[in-house]
Amino acid sequence: xxxxxxxxxxxxxxxxxxxxxxxxxxxxxxxxxxxxxxxxxxxxxxxxxxxxxxxxxxxxxxxxxxxxxxxxxxxxxxxxxxxxxxxxxxxxxxxxxxxxxxxxxxxxxxxxxxxxxxxxxxxxxxxxxxxxxxxxxxxxxxxxxxxxxxxxxxxxxxxxxxxxxxxxxxxxxxxxxxxxxxxxxxxxxxxxxxxxxxxxxxxxxxxxxxxxxxxxxxxxxxxxxxxxxxxxxxxxxxxxxxxxxxxxxxxxxxxxxxxxxxxxxxxxxxxxxxxxxxxxxxxxxxxxxxxxxxxxxxxxxxxxxxxxxxxxxxxxxxxxxxxxxxxxxxxxxxxxxxxxxxxxxxxxxxxxxxxxxxxxxxxxxxxxxxxxxxxxxxxxxxxxxxxxxxxxxxxxxxxxxxxxxxxxxxxxxxxxxxxxxxxxxxxxxxxxxxxxxxxxxxxxxxxxxxxxxxxxxxxxxxxxxxxxxxxxxxxxxxxxxxxxxxxxxxxxxxxxxxxxxxxxxxxxxxxxxxxxxxxxxxxxxxxxxxxxxxxxxxxxxxxxxxxxxxxxxxxxxxxxxxxxxxxxxxxxxxxxxxxxxxxxxxxxxxxxxxxxxxxxxxxxxxxxxxxxxxxxxxxxxxxxxxxxxxxxxxxxxxxxxxxxxxxxxxxxxxxxxxxxxxxxxxxxxxxxxxxxxxxxxxxxxxxxxxxxxxxxxxxxxxxxxxxxxxxxxxxxxxxxxxxxxxxxxxxxxxxxxxxxxxxxxxxxxxxxxxxxxxxxxxxxxxxxxxxxxxxxxxxxxxxxxxxxxxxxxxxxxxxxxxxxxxxxxxxxxxxxxxxxxxxxxxxxxxxxxxxxxxxxxxxxxxxxxxxxxxxxxxxxxxxxxxxxxxxxxxxxx
Length: 877
Hints:
Elements: H1 9-22, E1 35-39, H2 51-69, E2 73-77, E3 79-80, H3 84-97, H4 107-121, H5 124-132, E4 142-143, H6 147-162, E5 166-176, E6 181-183, E7 188-204, E8 210-215, E9 226-229, E10 243-245, E11 252-257, E12 269-272, H7 278-287, H8 313-326, E13 330-343, E14 351-360, H9 366-374, E15 380-382, H10 387-395, E16 400-401, E17 403-404, E18 414-416, E19 424-426, H11 430-441, E20 452-453, E21 457-458, H12 461-464, H13 467-470, H14 481-486, E22 491-494, H15 499-513, E23 521-524, E24 528-529, H16 546-553, H17 555-564, E25 572-573, H18 576-597, E26 601-602, H19 609-634, H20 638-661, E27 669-670, H21 671-688, H22 693-703, H23 725-747, E28 756-761, H24 771-778, E29 780-786, E30 793-798, E31 801-806, H25 813-838, H26 841-846, H27 849-876
Helix pairs in contact: 1-22, 3-4, 9-10, 9-15, 16-17, 17-18, 18-20, 19-20, 19-21, 19-23, 19-24, 20-21, 21-22, 23-24, 25-27
């Protein structure tokens, strides 16, 4: 097979990915081997590949490829999430472009459009992941709206309801007025925003007295149903039981007393709007207050909004504050910094809203998940620092609002048989619901036509929390072969931003529905940021096109670039130069391969001593590095594992070993050394394959003709062998000696082709292990050991040993003496100028300590250099 002169990443990547797919190397079925399973964090079906996906999936691919090489039955399950809010928004926007409003469609008609959109655009990201080299078992690709996964969700809902853990309640919820749905507490992002505090006066009915309250939301006064004061506040006790008049609305509302009110905060008076604040709702329930909801679902004001009806809440805030000021109700405004809840998906400001919703009780469900991570350590978080975040969420958990006012998603399996809120049954399907409804009502004449299914759908996370179980059909068939073989899975790789949304909930589901953990290790990646530490986003325009990066630098180059700077849990400061470094590494290895394959091999030549010694050293170095790599993988320090591999191949293999064994120009290499180099090269490729799968497979297949069962992707990971630290340390010293010889050649302009002699004055016990290597790489005609310093020689030190190179024939002695004398005169002059400054008491006493210290260091360096120059001159004379 002809070896191209240049590594063409694009061609190679297409060729080998197709080859891997054709030979079904990614395919996994249960067998006698030990399984290693990963489930992909399912990207939104609406998604396209971005830098976060690139990092996350590269790490997963590294882990799965390494497991495959280590002989595990490696199974990486891919898939996508139906993403209720995001997908519905896309479909609504598409319909709007065609002049169709969602409100004009039936649920069935809308879902047809949603499925059409999903089939056309969904799953694009999975195809893009193939370009990155992701070795998922694509036959297992799942979608959270697949029939079996949907049935799993419904079964779980029914099970939890029958256990008394799911209930329907009229509660204050987080309302997203853009998506027109509720959100769970965890989907609300709080941002600090500069706003205003408005001081408003309410007239006291039947008197000239006024009550002043402060609010950040003047538009909500139209929903006020009480003024509340502390019963111990002497300023206001005379008002308790009286009525105040709501500005503009003219409604009379009671002045009530409750110790909930902080007398020291604000004016000590609180406006109570039960429909639009959770704490106000609590007061309203306690005191039996009227509830006045002033908003439509899109956060425009309704009929209670007076002449502002139909206007957006933020428009009304500006207009009503102006009207209140003009009419004397607004007495002052102050700047006020407060936390505003926003929707994680749409970024809209959340509106607290009273609504009938479905909830899952969490208090008892979280206990096994808490114990597994924070108690027994059965599940481990990497890095460990995220345990505090995990603890905070689980120890402050509230019931999960699982219903969403969306059509795209899993429709809640509740059927109403009457007009009341509680007139419903929960069942797996309408037929089962009919049986239950007949039992509840005693009405045997009921038909399915009399039943009406709940309009709401389930929160997207309610399906994805089952992901590690449902992808193996473990809900519908809890004892099937696959769930028993692959579950629990091994590693989960995801971002810390969904540690609660998804990770904690999967752990909860694992213990609730399988009685065991869903995975053993959770590797949390950092966020990908730009060089200015800004989070990458489309809006900032700082997120590069992932596919263009692959096109420019090759998938392997991008993978290396991402991983080299990606310590677990720490943000990655992405720079395209990192990908260039990865591409450069690929080219370095490719050129090393071409060098080796270009050597002529002779079976007649015995193996030179320097080659035997070099290969013995590399075996020890390789095994030491392998131990480091195994340790780093065990700690999920993937970046460090790559760096160790990078240094082994670039520095130790390419820069040292190949130089040590390389035959002389136009001379053949001995067959024994060549065979050993090929074996070493192959072991290197195995270590590198998880990180750079395409390049390594290409070189592996060029090494020799191989049958499909001998492809690198299914080769055997190198076995750990013992190594001798002494052998490695001695080589490091030999490398320094070689560098010393090369430095002298460079400084004295001695051509590499000129042979030199080297004499060694060993301070300690001498080691001759690498003398043949030093002789070869230093181009020495002789290497000997002496017991005293050598006159008339150039010298350098490595540790306590001194090395001498006789100058006779190597350099022009007279020129060298003149050069050293010139440098000595300059250095002595420099020393005088420094010592003059230091002899100036005014300078020493007044200059900063660090400045004086620098000058004293200059003096010491100059004195040391003068001694060295004089010693060199004495040897040459």
